[in-house]
Amino acid sequence: MLILTADDVRSLLTMLEAVDAARDAVRLLSTGGADVPLRLNLDVPEQEGHTLVMPARVPELGAFGLKVISLFTRNAARGIDAAPAHVLVLDAETGQVVALVDGVVLTQRRTGAVQGVATDALARSDARTGALLGTGSLAPAQLEAMLTVRDLDEVRVYSRDPARTAAFVDRARESLEGRHGARLVAASSATAAVEGADVVTAATPATTPVVSDSAVAPGAHVNAIGAFTPAMRELDPRLVGRAGLVVVDTPAATVEAGDLVDPIARGLLDPARIVELGAVVAGRAAGRTSDDQVTVFKCVGSAVLDVVTAQRVYAAALDRGIGQKVAL
């Protein structure tokens, strides 16, 4: 079995490669080429946590495995990751475990990558200005994905903590230097970041909307990445209601994500209007139809993204001789 660390994952998978993997994953999920059972949720109330087991199989790609991710809020006080995760890669022919992959970095990159697929499919080709709301663990990959699929001149970054925003911008400038030429600026408010932006990405744990309807310009594409439960929401329901196109990574988003549950309950959004990203990628559903159309992408995540991405990482590790081999 091969052990692949967080640093291994970073070195083995560029964002462009991650976007390609995510594109294949959502396409096959939409066309019936992926087997994704319901995830298992094990509550651990005495630790204010729960653990999810998320299996998937994609025969066409030889991808087979499962992710185990825990959300333990007390871990922050312990000085350890509040969302530890690992992905087991299985041999598609024998069912044997062939790799254990760090799931924290992999989750961050695959989540950025699926946003990249959506932005590439739905944003205007001449998009030049971006907005990023949130500076947490998902944010670096979200920023990199936006810059990978669109040649943006400027990205405005906002979070509730000005010092944290400034520090994020400084780190991002350093990490992206020489790869992307966009100007990164700290915005004074969410509205200041979003107004006039061609691509907007929200990656926050918000329970009240951070992207207002009035701030989003005609022709903008909006990604909602951070809110993943019915009680969470990043988008003004009026924005979702007026969007000309609403796209999801998986149909489960319509019942799991407050960004959709709320406008549907208010009668602002007809569920029949919602289309899967994989259907757009596969050409079975229309994407953007005009330059002034507002498009929205809502992501809640799927094990198929983890398993397909982990398979790519494992294949690259074998090819390049990276990772620690262990015998069990």
UniProtKB/TrEMBL annotation:
Assigned GO CC terms: cytoplasm
Molecular-function annotations in GO: oxidoreductase activity
Entry's Gene Ontology BP terms: carboxylic acid metabolic process
UniProt-listed InterPro entries: NAD(P)-bd_dom_sf (IPR036291), ODC_Mu_crystall (IPR003462), ODC_N (IPR023401)
Family to which the UniProt record says this protein belongs: Belongs to the ornithine cyclodeaminase/mu-crystallin family.
Name of the protein this chain belongs to: Ornithine cyclodeaminase family protein
Species, as recorded: Cellulomonas fimi
Lineage: Bacteria, Bacillati, Actinomycetota, Actinomycetes, Micrococcales
